[in-house]
């Protein structure tokens, strides 16, 4: 099973992008999907997550109200709509899948499958 992230690019401050993360390969059970990001010189940080079965969502405070995570069950794809982008949103964005239930949303340790990153650069 692989996760393939796409949709990154260069955008001006205040602009928007939509990231996609599609799973391929054998069918596997997913409890939750998440997005993380890592800026140069910084640790990877949680951005948003969605519970696959019921669509419940959770966001980092830094993106709440600007980013929206969603999923398409039929396409096995999760999306991250990013609006009102800021220079501090610049990072490599990673999608991840958690196969098992966890009461936690944000720790990277609960996600057991990771995709490759996609670069998002917010600059004028």
Write the layout of secondary structure elements.
Blueprint: E1 2-6, E2 9-11, E3 17-24, E4 32-38, E5 45-51, E6 57-59, E7 67-72, E8 77-82, E9 91-98, E10 113-114, E11 118-122
Parallel strand pairs: 2-11
Antiparallel strand pairs: 1-3, 3-8, 4-5, 4-9, 5-6, 7-8, 9-10, 9-11
Number of helices: 0
Q: What's the total number of strands?
A: 11
Q: Give the biggest beta sheet.
A: 7 strands, mixed
Fraction of residues in H or I helices: under 10%
What form results from the Cα inertia axes?
globular
What is the average of the pLDDT values? Answer: 94
The CA-CA distance between the termini, in Å, is 37 Å
Instruction: Report the C-alpha radius of gyration, rounded.
Output: 14 Å
Approximately how much beta-strand content do the residues carry? over 45%
Structural class: mainly beta
- Provide the low-confidence segments as ranges: none
> Which H/E pattern describes the elements?
EEEEEEEEEEE
Oligomer: single chain
Structural features, described:
The protein has strands spanning 2-6, 9-11, 17-24, 32-38, 45-51, 57-59, 67-72, 77-82, 91-98, 113-114, 118-122. It is an all-beta fold and 124 residues long. Strands 2, 4, 5, 6, 9, 10 and 11 form a seven-stranded mixed β-sheet that branches. The chain has a four-stranded antiparallel β-sheet with strand order 1-3-8-7, with no helix packed on it. It is globular, with a radius of gyration of 14 Å.
């Amino acid at each position: 099973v692989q996760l393939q992230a796409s949709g990154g690019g260069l955008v001006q401050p205040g602009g928007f992008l939509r990231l996609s993360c599609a799973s391929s390969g054998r069918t596997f059970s997913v409890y939750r999907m998440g997005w993380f990001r890592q800026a140069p010189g910084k640790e990877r940080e949680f951005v948003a997550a969605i519970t696959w079965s019921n669509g419940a969502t959770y966001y980092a405070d830094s993106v709440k109200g600007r980013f929206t995570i969603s999923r398409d069950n039929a396409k096995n794809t999760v999306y991250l709509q990013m609006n009102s982008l800021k220079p501090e949103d610049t990072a490599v964005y990673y999608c991840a899948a958690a196969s098992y239930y966890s009461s936690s949303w944000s720790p990277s340790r609960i996600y057991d499958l990771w995709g490759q990153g996609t670069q998002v650069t917010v600059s004028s």
